Each structure stands twice: as structure tokens, then as C-alpha cells.
């Protein structure tokens, strides 16, 4: 691919390679950027693992730490990874319950990309002797991805994995 064509295709992406990155300390979905999926005729997963996710408890204001796992099957648009990192960082001073965080992230990514399928799984470190691992997913209604979402939701924790990050 020629350098000119690559620059044209990536014109929507402003954060990648930008040396003057600004970190937002409050929730900001406008940070997210997309680029064109070069393989829209093929189903494939894109997975992001964020082992250093941080948010605040909305009641106590205490920090909550965990890992966030995002998997999706793209349609026409894909999320740019640096913008996703900055977006996830924007939760650092955001107060919401773990269950709300995973659903907010999923909803923002659905609005941004309109993927075929997406799932978000948070695995939070224990506080008060208990850990919370909320999982949510979505498949485009009226398609095989809707049935896939139902199947994966029903079976997502059928065989609990070994958790090494706690």
C-alpha cells in the first residue's frame, strides 16, 4: 500500500503517533476513534485485554482495579487501539459500579462501530473479600450474531477459567 493511500485511510485517526497525548481524568467517550475494516466480508474477532483498568466506587470514592476484556466482530468500522486505551483511562476518576462500567463500555463501542457482535468482561480485584466479574454482550438483532450472543451469554462461565491476575 502506498504511503499516500494509508494516510488517506487513516485520516480519522488523530491519536495514533501523536506525541502530545493528553490524558483525560474524567469519563469521555468522545476520545474513541475508528478506522475502516479492510476485511468486512469476513467474520473474525478482535480482542483487547486491559489488565490495568481503574474506576471509582460511586459510594465510597475508593479506587477499583481490574482487568477489562473486550472482544468484537467488526462490520465496517474498527476502534483504534490508542484511542481505546485513552478512553479506558478516562474511567480512572469515574464513579460507577463494575456492572455499569462494562455496560457503558459496550454501549459506547456499539454506538461507535456498529459491530456484528461484541462482549465486554470485567474481572475486578477483590474488595472487602469479594471480587466481581460482570460480563455483557450484544449481537446485531435479526442476525446469527444475536443467536451467538444468547449462546455465549448462557455459556460464558460454564467452565470458569483460572484467574491469575488477582
Automatic annotation (TrEMBL):
Cite the PANTHER family for this sequence. Answer: NADPH-DEPENDENT 7-CYANO-7-DEAZAGUANINE REDUCTASE
- InterPro entries membership: GTP-CH-I_C/QueF (IPR043133), NADPH_dep_7-cyano-7-deazaG_red (IPR050084), QueF (IPR029500), QueF_type1 (IPR016856)
Q: What is the gene name?
A: queF
Q: Which UniProt keywords apply?
A: Cytoplasm, NADP, Oxidoreductase, Queuosine biosynthesis
Q: Which organism is it from?
A: Paenibacillus graminis
Show the SUPFAM superfamilies listed in the entry.
Answer: Tetrahydrobiopterin biosynthesis enzymes-like
Subcellular compartments: Cytoplasm
- Enzyme class (EC, first level): oxidoreductase
GO-annotated molecular function:
preQ1 synthase activity
Its biological purpose: Catalyzes the NADPH-dependent reduction of 7-cyano-7-deazaguanine (preQ0) to 7-aminomethyl-7-deazaguanine (preQ1).
Under catalytic activity, the entry for this protein gives:
7-aminomethyl-7-carbaguanine + 2 NADP(+) = 7-cyano-7-carbaguanine + 2 NADPH + 3 H(+)
Q: Name one Pfam family in it.
A: QueF
Entry's EC annotation: 1.7.1.13
Protein name (database record): NADPH-dependent 7-cyano-7-deazaguanine reductase
Give the residues the record marks as binding substrate: 79-81, 98-99
Q: In which pathway does it act?
A: tRNA modification; tRNA-queuosine biosynthesis
Which GO terms of type biological process are on file? Answer: tRNA queuosine(34) biosynthetic process
One GO cellular component assignment for this chain's record is: cytoplasm
Give the active-site positions: 57 (thioimide intermediate), 64 (proton donor)
User: Which protein family is it in?
Assistant: Belongs to the GTP cyclohydrolase I family. QueF type 1 subfamily.
Amino acid at each position: 500500500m502506498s504511503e499516500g493511500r494509508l494516510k488517506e485511510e487513516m485520516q480519522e485517526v488523530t491519536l495514533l503517533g501523536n506525541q502530545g497525548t493528553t490524558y483525560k481524568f474524567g469519563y469521555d467517550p468522545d476520545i474513541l476513534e475508528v478506522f475502516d475494516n479492510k476485511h468486512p466480508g469476513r467474520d473474525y474477532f478482535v480482542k483487547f485485554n486491559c489488565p490495568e483498568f481503574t474506576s471509582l466506587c460511586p459510594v465510597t470514592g475508593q479506587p477499583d482495579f481490574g482487568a477489562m476484556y473486550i472482544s468484537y466482530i467488526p462490520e465496517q468500522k474498527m476502534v483504534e487501539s490508542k484511542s481505546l486505551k485513552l478512553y479506558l483511562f478516562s474511567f480512572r476518576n469515574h464513579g460507577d459500579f463494575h456492572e455499569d462500567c462494562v455496560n457503558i463500555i459496550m454501549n459506547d463501542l456499539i454506538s461507535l462501530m456498529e459491530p456484528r457482535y461484541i462482549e465486554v468482561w470485567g474481572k475486578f480485584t477483590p474488595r472487602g473479600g469479594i471480587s466481581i466479574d460482570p460480563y455483557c454482550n450484544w449481537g446485531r438483532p435479526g442476525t446469527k450474531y444475536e443467536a451467538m450472543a444468547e449462546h455465549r451469554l448462557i455459556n460464558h462461565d460454564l467452565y470458569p477459567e483460572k484467574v491469575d491476575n488477582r
